[in-house]
Amino acid sequence: MKKTKAIHIHENGGPDVMKFEDVDLPSPGAGEVQIRHAAIGLNFIDVYFRSGVYKAPYFPLPLGKEAAGTIIEVGPGVTDFAVGDRVAYVGSDGAYSVARNIETRHLVKVPDDIPLETAASMMLKGMTAEYLLNRTFKVGPGTTLLFHAAAGGVGLIAGQWAKALGAGTVIGTAGSAEKVKLALAHGYDHVIDYSRESFADRVREITGGKGVDVVYDSIGKDTFPHSLDCLKPRGMWVTFGQSSGPIENFNLAILNQKGSLFATRPSLFAYVGTPEELRASASALFAVVQSNKVRINIHQTYPLSDAGRAHTDLETRKTSGTTLLIP
């Protein structure tokens, strides 16, 4: 029986509830492999489970849903992966660890020309951008869109990818002059500093009063209902996160009042629920990165043992773009 280090929470709370612990690591079981992580992605969903916004299925809960590394041991019955394979995954709890066992249904092989650190930084964020732009609302030539948190990890990928898909006008929001500049360098035609002006008024100005076809909103409480005021009649509001807190007392009648709008609350895991869907989404992501139409830049790294500070910085909006934890 090997030992490894991993972060667990034994209760919900602030960053201080995360414990960097010694844990047993048995040999992988049937259908599993053992991975040594090279890098681990930091995402807001980790904060949601730590804080209790999303209910933990059990305690102690291993945190983290995204990482990349190298297979170091293969369990019984595994034929499609081998020791030495470079792999990445998203969706399986336990990424905040030095090494772990994982079922192969969660894994994708990483192309040789994509560094493992890059893979770890883009799986959840990049595949989120993939399903949002390609499947929730299909962006194409002539699409006008608004993407909140344009300087965040998903936002920086989405701005570039939307332009690669031929979107006509790509508008973003960000919370500082520095983040506005960053987003403008990643595909956005216009970026609105919401700390200085009304984003809804500015969107109407940019679009000549027409509004946008779709709003992608991961902010939640702070951007509602103003996101709806940015939409054309019959436009779509895609609310896929709640970094500022959940939207409460949502009245469906508001969609009628503001122009027969559509609304959806998607999540990545409903779009990559099968191995086939997962690998198709990852393949699309790898292809757009390999084409250089989407650049993945890692903006911050923290030691895994310092994940508490990383969570604090993420929650207080001190980070931009992509953040990695390094075991």
UniProtKB/TrEMBL annotation:
GO terms for molecular function: mRNA 3'-UTR AU-rich region binding; NADPH binding; quinone reductase (NADPH) activity. Its EC number is 1.6.5.5. One of its GO terms (cellular component) is cytosol. The keyword Membrane does not apply. The keyword Phosphoprotein does not apply. Residues 13-325 form the Enoyl reductase (ER) domain. This is NADPH2:quinone reductase. It comes from Rhizobium leucaenae.
